[in-house]
Amino acid sequence: MSQPPLYTTQLQAGLGLIEETQRLLELYEPDMSTQQLYERALESGQFPLVTARRLLNIVKECFAPRYLRQPGVAESVKQLFPCLDSDERRQLLMLHTARANVILADFIREVYWPRYTSGRNSLSRDDALRFVEDAVREGRTQKRWADSTISRMSGYLLSACADFGLLEDRLRGPRRLYSVRLSTRVAGYLAYDLKLQDLGDNQVLNHPDWQLFGLERVDVREQFKRLSLEGLLIMQTAGDVTHISWQHKNMQEVVDVLAGY
Q1: pTM to 2 decimal places
Q2: How many alpha carbons fall within 13 Å on the CB side of residue 125?
Q3: What is the pLDDT of residue 170?
Q4: Residue 167 and residue 111 in contact, taking contact as beta carbons nearer than 8 Å
């Protein structure tokens, strides 16, 4: 059984970067390299308050690992982005940011949602600090992090969650948890994104990406029923057996349909 990926400090290069990502998506063209995107962004004048070095860092360490890691992701997100409301945009960007930063994904799944479902209404810096300390102690990092790194990463986790609408945006004290409900359009995007990775139906239904939005398997099945009612797919269930008929062959078809909602 393969070992889970190790945690890195890459999240410190940029948290949610909602506005910056939107601008970079507007500048991005198919098959553009990281360097080409950086040069276009630098020449565009759309980042007047960002130094050239910082802009390169944003493109190379944040945008590229999130949206250029898999072919077609940036193109799909770019096309879909203008059709989404602000909550849907945050959900879509959170998905790809969490995939690129495993420490954030695990924090959301293992700390945020259990706290939310238990009826608690806030998260504190101590909660995040304890999570990171436990991870370092359990060998989830390539080498032991310094106390200063542990402290910084704890703050970055909370701030990233705030950027994506999970937590109250504040610098001190406990942060209030916000109610988040996965939108139908982002659910449809995620369902097909997983399927087009050659996963079987059960693998799609059980994929940990759904847990980023607080969904367990029974919740995912309910979500798929809604997608079926919307005509995005056909789901048939008999007891514990589920069969899904996928109505679209590629992500371009999916994006075209979702953009028309």
Answers
A1: 0.94
A2: 11
A3: 82
A4: no
